[in-house]
Amino acid sequence: MATGSRVLIGLTLILIISGELIVSGQGGMCQGDIEGLMRECAVYVQRPGRKVNPSTACCRVVKRSDVRCACDRITASVQKMIDMDKVVHVTAFCGKPLAHGTKCGSYVVP
């Protein structure tokens, strides 16, 4: 992956973390290792590219994260950079599947 793509993905995820993952009704932030998600999992959900199984390190981080909370905070600009089918694949592969009908950003899990 090109360095520019990594930087762009990293900056986008930082923007998500800094403001968009705040849970307004619960007075806190989504649980999990956001830095770890960026470091270990970004390559598995980015556009373009084929769907591949994530690493053990990525799955470790996914298992510690509140994926549902993060889904509730995904914006249209983020969805332009990540492939939601890949997000669903990664979470399922890592043992934290999103239920059918779950809304993740504007994407609805089939």
Task: Explain what the structure shows.
- This protein is mostly helical.
- The protein has one domain (3-108).
- The protein is 53% helix and 7% strand.
- The protein has helices spanning 3-20, 34-45, 56-63, 67-72, 76-79, 84-93; strands spanning 22-23, 28-29, 103-104, 107-108.
- The strands form 2 sheets. It has a two-stranded antiparallel ribbon. The protein has a two-stranded antiparallel ribbon with strand order 3-4.
- Helix 1 (3-20) crosses helix 2 and helix 2 packs across helix 3.
- The protein is globular.
- Residues 14-28 have low confidence and may be disordered.
Please specify the SSE layout and strand pairing:
Blueprint: H1 3-20, E1 22-23, E2 28-29, H2 34-45, H3 56-63, H4 67-72, H5 76-79, H6 84-93, E3 103-104, E4 107-108
Antiparallel strand pairs: 1-2, 3-4
> Looking at the structure, what is the overall shape?
globular
Identify low-pLDDT runs. 14-28
Strand content: 5-15%
Query: Order of SSEs, N→C?
Result: HEEHHHHHEE
Tally of extended strands? 4
Portion of residues in helices?
40-55%
Structural class determined from secondary elements = mainly alpha
Which strands sit side by side, in order, in the main sheet? Answer: 1-2
Key features?
single chain; 110 residues; mainly alpha; two-stranded antiparallel sheet; 6 helices; 53% helix; globular
Briefly characterize the structure:
The protein is mostly helical and 110 residues long. Helices cover 53% and strands 7% of the residues. The protein has one domain (3-108).
